[in-house]
Amino acid sequence: MASSSPNSLTTVLAAFGALIATSYAYNIFSFLYLFLFHRSTISRYLQPASSSATSSTSELRSWALITGASDGIGVGFAHELASEGFNIILHGRSPTKLATVEAALKAQYPHISTRLFVLDAYPCSVPAIDDYVRGLAKDGLCIRVLVNNIGGGALVSPTFQPLARRTAEEVQKLFDLNVGFPTLLTRALLPVMQEPSLVLNLGSFVSHIPGPWMTVYAGSKAFNMSWSRSLGVELRAEGKDVEVMGLVVGEVQSGGHPGPVGLVMCSSRTLARSALDKVGCGRHTVAPWWRHAAILAAVLCLPEALLNWSMVRTTRGMVEEEKRLLEVDKRNL
Ligand SMILES: NC(=O)c1ccc[n+]([C@@H]2O[C@H](COP(=O)([O-])OP(=O)(O)OC[C@H]3O[C@@H](n4cnc5c(N)ncnc54)[C@H](OP(=O)(O)O)[C@@H]3O)[C@@H](O)[C@H]2O)c1
């Protein structure tokens, strides 16, 4: 067998290099295009209902249902979607907190209608979800947008814990809130939503990078993103006009994640606005805020061992800080 000459080796290496350079150039170009030139198509989901049993004109407008809308990013989405002209269904478990958000929406956007959907998502009840959706269908609401926002790692305490020390109840709660509730609600709601329709699912950086001491949360968020991609592709293949977008989110100031807005942390409204700005971009997963997207792209260039090491180091610091704060709380009781 003839051995390869230095010339053919050079050609193979050059072709390989060109391929890598093209892939980098494409990624840079699509990043710039998405954040500088893409124009949102959110307005296509504002089409009035084709038929409806509701009487009021304002109720004929498109509705957006936002889960976990009594705090944080959910409130951000409620305001941004209301500012676009959507009627809003606010979901949460606390009627008092939801009423406060509703009052703020009504004061700022008097032309929209609002409804409350009060349901504790843990334990996740299929009959309760199905009953509620049946009620919406009976009322003939034109629901075009669903934001599966409910979730988080801080919904159990402590947030950081080795898997073997988590109680079975904590694991179940993380599954129910991050995976079970959004999946079951979407399953029930899709047949009721009017096309064209939009489903936004909240993910996290830990969908893409390791999340030691928060493995169940990280795994759930990876589910959210993989599920968004598969569902988006499935619906398109079935001929449905439903856009599904998984949102890869870094640090955002919220009730569950307080902290100052800064270089790497944006406000809940900025996150929601950035997400709505990406509607129609054709991707099934996207990091909506440009700084998060840039950070994630840079982090994913790191060698795996270095990324794992730095996540262990960073998260260990957070584990220690949380332990200290929980001790202070215990002493103050
Ligand atoms: N903030 C971040 O830095 C960040 C980063 C990455 C991803 N995310 C993702 O973004 C989403 C929102 O996060 P967030 O920080 O805005 O959360 P948050 O401030 O903690 O708000 C969570 C919302 O979910 C509701 N909720 C919690 N448990 C519930 C239950 N059992 N039944 C019904 N509602 C319940 C809360 O209601 P109450 O007001 O009654 O508690 C609140 O409205 C999550 O999916 C999270 O994973 C956030």
UniProtKB/TrEMBL annotation:
The keyword Membrane applies. The chain crosses the membrane at residues 12-36. Belongs to the short-chain dehydrogenases/reductases (SDR) family. It comes from the Eukaryota. Keywords: Membrane, Oxidoreductase, Transmembrane, Transmembrane helix. It comes from Mycena albidolilacea. One of its GO terms (molecular function) is oxidoreductase activity. This is NAD(P)-binding protein. One of its GO terms (cellular component) is endoplasmic reticulum. The keyword Metal-binding does not apply.
